[in-house]
Amino acid sequence: MKKVVVGMSGGVDSSVCAYLLKEQGYEVIGATMQLWRSKEQEKNSEDISCGVDDILEAQKVAKCLDIPHYVMNFYDSFQDKVVNRFVKEYLRGMTPNPCVICNRHIKWGEFLKTCQELGADYIATGHYARIMKLENGRYSVKNSKTAEKDQTYVLYSLTQEQLAHTLMPIGDYDKTEIRKIAEKIGLPVAHKKDSQDICFIDDGDYAGFIESKTGSLGKPGNFVSVSANKVLGHHTGTVKYTIGQRKGFGIAVGYPLYVCSINAESGEIKLGKQDELFSSFLIADNLQYMGESRFDENKVYKAKIRYSQDSKPCKVTYINENQIRVDFENKVRAITPGQALVLYLDDWVAGGGTII
């Protein structure tokens, strides 16, 4: 019997994931990862009982499913590889996606390694995605049954070795079906609300979080109009802004203004009209390959430049071995440095990179 460790967050998706794999005949073990501390817990450096409620929920589910449950502490690694990087990138004028980094280095890095050391054949998660092996012999993640919940975007950087040892049964279901399964088998989390925000920022205040960590909001400077290159006002730090933002400037010009670019070194933030947010191309580096070992400059891919946006047709040109230019068939809105670029062929991930 193959052994699988399910990363149980205390939510309905990972809980049903564990149930489905047990039904399929796997030896299932539940494990919850400790990654962060709340603001109250930070006051006591010895208290690392992060996500106590989620751990208790996961333990209740494990008891219902009659499977063992463990807690694994990855707090230090999470701080180093995810939180500190998030802070550093924001101060550079980027808008990073910490979930992408966490998936590659923590959930499929530290967690997978630990589980394999304990004799597990696979790990499993409650992500809405499907793992497939292509005709070229490479693994990829394929879109889930429901586009609304699809999570392939944040999984693009997983390696071939990581994918070969991962199961994702939730991708064959939609959310309603998952909740119905949880109801049917009496799981206490059947109607638990989905988690949406970044887990280590309790109140959603990114700028406040970064200021509390570093004492800085980034460099202060001027708001400058894109079209006239005219100073429109002043701000107290670049960290408070991101591409596409349209509020918080304290400026009235008679029409909506949006953040079009951020220069973290000079502190200059350019503001423009809605149509000035659109661009026909982007540059990306830190390339990661999944379904393909190299992008084909003759193919038409579909690119996603943020989790919530539809994919757009594009072509790829190599600038060098770790940098590409992506040209879109039609202009796209609010291309944001620091966010992930994910390239698709049909319904599977070819690879991606980081927008610069």
The structural class is alpha/beta
Major beta-sheet overview: 6 strands, antiparallel, barrel
Distance between the termini: 46 Å
Rg calculated over all Cα atoms = 22 Å
H-E order:
EHEHHEHHEEEHEHHEEEEEEEEEE
| Overall body shape | globular
- Multimeric state: single chain
**Residue ranges: pLDDT <50 for 5 or more in a row?**
43-50
User: What's the total helix number?
Assistant: 8
Portion of residues in beta strands equals 25-35%
Question: Strands of the biggest beta sheet: in what spatial order?
Answer: 12-15-14-13-16-17
Average of the residue pLDDT scores: 92
Number of strands: 17
- Helix proportion range: 25-40%
How would you summarize what this structure contains?
With 356 residues, this protein is of the alpha/beta class. 26% of the residues lie in helices and 29% in strands. The longest helix has 20 residues, at 98-117.
Please describe what this structure looks like.
The structure is a single chain. The protein has 356 residues and is α/β, with parallel strands linked by helices. Strands 12-15-14-13-16-17 form a six-stranded antiparallel beta barrel. Strands 3-2-1-4-7 form a five-stranded parallel sheet, sandwiched between helices. A hairpin with a 2-residue loop joins β14 and β15 (323-333). The longest helix is centred in the N-terminal third of the chain and has 20 residues, at 98-117. The protein starts with a strand and ends with a strand. α1 (12-23) packs parallel to α3 (52-65) and α1 (12-23) crosses α7 (175-184). It is globular, with a radius of gyration of 22 Å. The protein has helices at residues 12-23, 39-42, 52-65, 75-91, 98-117, 160-164, 175-184, 206-214, and strands at 3-7, 27-34, 69-73, 122-124, 129-133, 139-143, 166-167, 221-225, 231-235, 258-262, 269-272, 278-289, 301-304, 312-320, 323-333, 340-345, 348-355. Helix content is 26%, strand content 29%. The chain is built from eight helices and 17 strands.
